[in-house]
Design goal:
This protein has one domain (2-216, 229-241): Phosphatase 2c, domain 1 (4-Layer Sandwich). It has 6 helices and 7 strands. The protein has helices at residues 33-41, 103-106, 111-124, 130-141, 165-169, 178-202, and strands at residues 2-6, 11-15, 21-23, 85-89, 97-101, 156-162, 239-241. The strands form 2 sheets. A 5-stranded antiparallel beta sheet has the order 3-2-5-6-7. It has a two-stranded antiparallel sheet with strand order 1-4. The longest helix has 25 residues, at 178-202. The chain is flat and about 55 Å long. It starts with a strand and ends with a strand.
């Protein structure tokens, strides 16, 4: 089983048999009906550019504590929440790879476009370095200049995980009761996100204001460091380009 927990507008896409792209997450955008209702009920608004109170352009996120400081609302009803959506799918031996990328990619290419590109690169050279495929993907997403539609520039981040078909075939008997396991996964993720939110909102920084958003960013650890080598053929690297 593959489980994906998502909060934000990065997306996970699974390449299935014959190269069909399967979205494993939904982008959380402020203008989406469900997200917009929660934001409005919490006292926020979304402008014409799709930004919450003129600042954040996604509706779920870890951090961004100034959007989560309403003492009269539970954590999941704040303007911005870190509570994720959890999806799952049974992996088949014909599944080829999954790709995780931020909106800098998906604002330019569709899930199927990206899947087709990666599959084509792997077809040309099955031993191609995944990091180089990421770089090529960035190149085709780059704008020729910074003018565009006036909305500015964005970063690009991509991770490709290529499955080992022998390993996938061996998974059939690992999880005997996927329904119970799935329920436990969802409960654990929800509990973890709630605890994290409590810690984040108990002592909000005084210099954070709703209409003047200040955000701190830290470099993520390479999530592939702890992935067993037998799961993937090539160890992918996290790449960024601006």
């Amino acid at each position: 089983m593959l489980y994906v927990a998502n909060a934000g507008d990065s997306r996970c896409v699974l390449c299935r048999k014959d190269g069909k792209a399967l979205d494993m997450s939904n982008d959380h955008k402020p203008e989406d009906e469900i997200e917009l209702k929660r934001i409005t009920r919490a006292g926020g608004h979304v402008n014409i550019q799709g930004r919450v109170n003129g600042g954040l352009n996604l509706s779920r996120a870890i951090g961004d504590h100034c959007y989560k400081a309403n003492p009269d609302l539970p954590l999941e009803e704040q303007m911005i929440t870190a509570v994720p959506d959890v999806t799952s799918v049974k992996l088949e031996h014909t599944d080829e790879f999954l790709v995780l990328a931020c909106d800098g990619i998906w604002n330019v290419k569709s899930s199927q476009d990206v899947t087709d590109f990666i599959k084509g690169e792997l077809f040309e050279d099955k031993n191609s370095k995944l990091s180089l495929i990421c770089e090529k993907l960035f190149d085709i997403c780059l704008a020729p200049d910074t003018m565009g539609d006036g909305s500015g520039c964005d970063n690009m981040t991509c991770i490709i995980v290529q499955f080992n078909p022998t390993w996938l075939s061996s998974l059939q008997n690992i999880v005997k009761d996927p329904v119970v396991y799935h329920d436990n996964i969802k409960k654990n993720v929800k509990d973890f996100s709630s605890v994290s939110l409590v810690k984040a909102t108990v002592k909000p920084n005084n210099d954070l204001k709703i209409n003047n958003v200040k955000r701190s960013r830290t470099e993520d650890n390479d999530v592939t460091n702890n992935v067993p080598k037998h799961i993937i053929k090539n160890e992918p690297k996290r790449q960024k380009s601006i």
